[in-house]
Amino acid sequence: MAEFAMDLNDEQKEVRDWLHGFAADVIRPAAAEWDEREETPWPVIQEASKLGIYSLDFYAQQFFDPTGLGIPMTMEELFWGDAGIALSIVGTGLAAVGVLANGTEEQIGTWIPQMYGDVNDVKVAAFCSSEPDAGSDVAAMRTRAVYDEAKDEWVLNGTKTWATNGGIANVHVVVASIDPELGSKGHASFIVPPNTPGLSQGQKFKKHGIRASHTAEVVLENVRVPGSCLLGGKDKLDERLARAREKAKKGGERVKNAAMATFEASRPAVGAMAVGTARAAYEEALEYAKTREQFGRPIIDNQGVAFQLADMRTQIDAARLLVWRASWMGTTGKKFENAEGSMSKLFASETAKKVTAQAIQILGGNGYTREYPVERMHRDAAIYTIFEGTSEIQRLVIARTLSGMPIR
Ligand SMILES: Cc1cc2nc3c(=O)[nH]c(=O)nc-3n(C[C@H](O)[C@H](O)[C@H](O)COP(=O)(O)OP(=O)(O)OC[C@H]3O[C@@H](n4cnc5c(N)ncnc54)[C@H](O)[C@@H]3O)c2cc1C
Fold first, then answer.
1. 31, 172, 208, 304 — which has fewest CB within 10 A?
2. Angle, CA of 94, 100 and 103, to the nearest 5°
3. CA 260 – CA 307 distance, rounded (Å)
4. 137 C-alpha vs ligand 1 centroid, how far in Å?
5. Please, are residues 281 and 353 in contact by the beta-carbon 8 Å criterion?
6. Cβ–Cβ < 8 Å for 380, 84
7. Atom 44, ligand 1: which residue's CA is nearest?
8. Which residues, listed in sequence order, are joined to residue 121 by a DSSP beta bridge?
């Protein structure tokens, strides 16, 4: 089991520098254009595919890095380039992880390659869990999956919302309820293969930030998928449901919304995205403060500016340490005794919001315009306190974990 280390090893440094080069040379110069266009940056994804950055191999290598630092390092560098474009590149990975974590070997081998496509025909994938009436309250999910035993098919009906790559994905991973009485314990995940009848894109959202990333509703109307599309398989599902029903009967209680606490291991990845955006804004602000002169001297000569930069850098480093710790814990199987995954996401995302706002302030009028990137970074940063569990939900998970109390 890898010891916690704050130094990247030589191989990781090489990968980090390679990613940084891609972020600086390809992502950053394209950022403003795709933000304005509010469209998926297919040419950039294709370029990432050519280099091997957009591929299952690369993502799996980072995901299974035994030190736990592969994913945070990757996220930080790509999101340093630009959050909207980076999300378009890693969004597929988030869906792939759903299959890697719950799928059988056959499902992994069949579906993940189709999520990425190939260099000449790149594809994306979507993970669809949120619904109009089930955001933080995942247990309120209404999308239903009903088994048609005669045909060995599952029939899915419902409306998903906020799905990254929803409707434009080659493969959709859809979470649906099989037994609503069991809350989130009655949920299961399904692969919806390419061109399956009944799946369509609903509204595409016009967003505040990460505008290069496609976000849309996904409508499921009598979507029939083969039995083999249930992730993990039916036997495993039946066993899990039987256990949950037994537990619910014995305890005489409605099964609690466990989903709130199940993302400890994946949350540090979002924290790392936030660190990338925060670092990018801090670097812009530092450079600007050293070169912009007012009253005959660089503005960084004023403590009021310099101390802000000192705080920004301190908070970014603290956020990265929390992210790395949680990611290392997740990879090495340490128990999240104090909701360390949620802590890392909470702190890093709030830091990104604060630091990007401070960067605008340091750039003055220029910071408020689209001539400079910090305005975009500030809009982008707002997403980190919302998706993959809002800051309030992180606090709820942390407070419940620390206290053992059912805090509401
Ligand atoms: C750009 C974008 C991309 C996304 N991508 C995906 C995706 O790919 N797949 C997917 O499934 N989902 C995705 N989401 C959905 C995202 O995870 C949800 O938006 C998020 O979980 C919050 O749900 P909600 O928007 O319904 O807010 P709500 O749950 O309605 O929350 C509204 C407010 O109430 C607060 N609140 C709610 N409950 C409590 C409570 N118990 N205590 C204190 N405060 C509370 C929240 O913190 C928030 O401030 C995405 C969202 C966005 C905006």
1. 304
2. 125
3. 37
4. 9
5. no
6. yes
7. 392
8. 118
Q: Which of 92, 218, 386, when mutated, tests ligand 1's pocket best, judged by the most ligand atoms within 8 Å of its CB?
A: 386
Looking at residue 384, what DSSP letter applies? G
What are the structure tokens assigned to 330, written together? 């997740």
Nearest to 308 by CA among 362, 379, 382, 366: 362
Tokens (6 digits) for 46: 């294709």
**Ligand 1 test: best mutation among 87, 92, 136, most atoms within 8 Å of CB?**
136
More reliable by pLDDT, 257 or 394: 394
Q: For residue 36, what are its two tokens? A: 């304005």
SS3 78: helix
Name the residue among 304, 303, 230, 317 with its Cα closest to residue 275. 317
Q: Which residue has the tokens 């401070």?
A: 358
CA–CA separation, 174 and 163 (whole Å): 10
For residues 259 and 388, which has the higher predicted lDDT (pLDDT)? 388
Q: Answer positive or negative: Cα dihedral of 257, 263, 267, 268.
A: positive
C-alpha span between 54 and 45 (Å, rounded):
7
Region class of 267: left (phi > 0), else alpha (psi between -120 and 50), else beta:
alpha
**Alpha-carbon separation of residue 65 from 2, 11, 61, 70, 133 (angstroms):** 10, 11, 6, 6, 37
| DSSP of 324-371 | HHHHHHHHHT---TT-HHHHHHHHHHHHHHHHHHHHHHHHHHHHTSTT
